[in-house]
Design a protein that fits this description.
Blueprint: H1 2-29, H2 34-58
Length: about 60
C-alpha cells in the first residue's frame, strides 16, 4: 500500500501542476490585453445588435 499512497500524493500534486503549467503557457501564447478585450466587446455588441434587428424584421 505504500505505492498507492505515493500514487495518490503524486496525483494530488503533479496533475494540478501540469494543468497549471499548460494554462500559463497557453495564456502566454494567447495574450489578451485591455485593448484587444475592448475591441472584441465592440465587435460582439455590433453582432448582437445586428441579430436583434434581423429578429425584429422577421416579426
Amino acid at each position: 500500500q505504500p505505492l498507492v499512497a505515493l500514487g495518490i500524493r503524486l496525483g494530488m500534486t503533479m496533475l494540478p501542476l501540469v494543468a497549471l503549467t499548460v494554462f500559463l503557457f497557453s495564456l502566454k501564447r494567447y495574450p489578451l490585453g485591455r485593448e484587444k478585450v475592448a475591441e472584441l466587446r465592440n465587435v460582439l455588441q455590433k453582432l448582437h445588435e445586428e441579430k436583434a434587428r434581423e429578429a425584429e424584421a422577421k416579426k
